[in-house]
Amino acid sequence: MMLLLAVSVGVLFATGTYMMMRRSLVKLVIGLALVGHAANLLIYTGARPLRGRPPLVETGESVPPAPFSDPLPAALVLTAIVIGFGIVSYTVVLVKRAYQDVGSDDLHDYTKTDCA
Amino acid sequence: MIVTLAILIPMLGAALCVVAWGHIRTQHAIGIASALGLCAVAATLIYRTSVDGTQVVAMGGWATPYGIALVADRFSAIMVSLAAIVGLAVAIYSVGATDRQRASYGHVPLVLAMIAAVCGAFLSGDLFNLYVWFELMLLSSFVLLTLGGERPQLEGAIKYVALNLFSSIVFLATTGVIYATVGTLNMAHLAERLDALENPMLATSLGAPLLVAFGIKAAVFPFFFWLPASYHTPPPVVSALFAGLLTKVGVYSLIRATTLLFDQEQVYVGHAMLVVAALTMVTGVFGAVTQNDMRRILSFHIVSQIGYMLMGLGVALTLAETPGAEDAAALAMVGSVFYIMHHIVVKTNLFLIAGAVIRVRGTSDLKSLGGIVSTHPFLSILFLISSLSLAGIPILSGFWAKLVLVRAGLEAGAFWIVGVSLAVSLLTLFSMMKIWTRGFWGAAPEQASPAGEQAGGSGLAMVYLPIVGLALITLAIGFGAPAIYDVAVAAAADLLDPEVYIRAVLPRAVGAIPEVAGGAS
After folding, report:
1. Residue numbers in B near A45 (CB within 8 A)
2. Lowest mean pLDDT: which of A36-45, A53-62, B1-10?
3. 3-state secondary structure string across B331-394
4. For chain A, where are the alpha helices, taking DSSP H only?
5. Chain A interface mutation, best of B165, B212, B239, B293, highest count of A Cβ atoms under 10 Å
6. Hey, which of B35, B84, B233, B291 would disulfide with B152, CB 3.0 to 4.6 Å?
7. What is the C-alpha separation between B398 and B473, in angstroms, rounded?
């Protein structure tokens, strides 16, 4: 399971970074979303997730029976996913508006703010 | 309690503005009232932190290090007060300068939300919580930047959004890895546990991506391209708010990270920081020299000035392990803090003045400006005060900030960085004088100003009021330098002794948290 997660994180980071470096704005958004997912998955992997062992504390105990996985990263990821969703939605709208104004998806046509 | 108010007041103001949607006058009133409230809270915070020491609030009653803590030491208190001052200036300026369309689409609540997030970032004592404040700040700034939807705004926003989102993702991923390695997110607890790591290089390599993420936000040398591409595009009042606060949150985080969390190999980090600082200063000022638009020049100067703040930090870090150099290290840190205080006030004011120039002349392009001295002598004097202060002319605030930095550099024996900073100062003076001679001095251009003046009236008074106020603060920092210096010394003392921060948050050492399952999958 850890191996699968580790490989997925790596693949997501690689593809996302590649997409971000393309000139197309749509690919930039896709890249940002992918890299965001990679980061979320990385945090989740940090919890060392275990199959079928929820970290529940038995009555009269103060710690869950070992081995258990850390529940906190799941909470962190949840927050990060919500923020990431909002930001990607904003970026999609921004790219659409920019496309309507500039009439191009190619970053090389976005020269209005270049420092001449 | 008082710590929470610094975030609650602007946040509540933003919420009230949403309730008063469409009532622009009410929103402006709420904006100014919230900013005034924040100023009062900030003043109390400075008083309380200097009398009672570091203030800690455990949110929701969850004891540290398990819950999220808000921590205000003397450095945080200064940063919050600066945010409050900028907030007040921007709230007042907005009344006279924001057009109806932008105002009715939520300019005021967005400004307040951003200030709340900035204060949150300055006060957060939890790494993940800091990330959340960063995101809140970014989202408000994204919308403020694009509000109005003009083409340059959208183009600038794409560059701004892409780079800043990337930095957030790096920050988030690093936070996850740090938690997985040391098992805590509370900054004080993190500082203890990172120190307890067997291999200090592990801590430094955990910190490196975090410094990159903060470096992008602070617009330091290899990562600054988003700033000059976007800061001149929104309305001047928004530029002023960004110029004053956004990059400084990055600088604040860099200072916190290197002095509190990743203080294991400070000398090594410090040398790297000095190189970055020098390159940031030089590239920023060269960028500025080639520009011909007031706001573009000022944007590049932000980059250049970030270098000075990092210079103080870098010098202080390089001296961390030199015996007998405590005084020089403290002086360098004082220089950084003093520079931040001076810079936020002056930079915000310069952007507001650029806005006033656009208002009376319809442009900030130096090629079509000229003769403002004869038509608006008062505005010209205000510009002169701020610009000469930025360049570091004696008696004005920038002079003292640079003096402290240069002295610290000389005492530390880092002569090359002192040389670079002085040369950059000269170039700063050159480009400020370029704005002065081409924009303010000389003859007015042939065609009379198209926009402006007639639109003035009471609105113009609201534009001048914050500019005069900030110029007075600049003068006060300059003439009252000893008092401000003492404040900076106190803040630097808190920064250079991480124990102060750690013991305030964790009065007693925390026992080990039960071990989590090992790598078995």
Report:
1. 180
2. A53-62
3. HHHHHHHHHHHHHHHHHHHHHHHHHHHHHHHCCCEHHHCCCHHHHCHHHHHHHHHHHHHHHCCC
4. 2-20, 25-45, 72-102
5. B165
6. B233
7. 12
Contact A48 B516 (CB under 8 A): yes
Whether pLDDT at A116 is above 70? no
Parse chain A into domains and list their residue ranges: 2-50+70-108
Q: Any chain A CB within 8 A of the CB of B129?
A: no
* Cβ-based contacts of B132 with chain A (< 8 Å): 79, 83
The residue in chain B having the minimum alpha-carbon distance to the alpha carbon of residue A54 is: B517
| Reported confidence tier of residue A115, pLDDT bands at 50, 70, 90 | low
CA gap B511, B496 in Å, rounded? 26
* Longest CA span, chain B: 79
Residue of B135, B154, B176 with shortest CB distance to A98: B154
> What is this model's ipTM?
0.94
pLDDT at B304 over 80: yes
| Residues A2-50+70-108, CATH architecture | Orthogonal Bundle (1.10)
**For B334-377, how does the pLDDT look when each residue is reduced to its tens digit (9 = 90+)?**
999 999 999 999 999 999 999 998 888 888 888 888 888 888 88
CB atoms within 10 A of CB A17: 14
Q: pTM of the entire structure?
A: 0.93
Measured between CB atoms, which of B132, B165, B230 is closest to A79?
B132
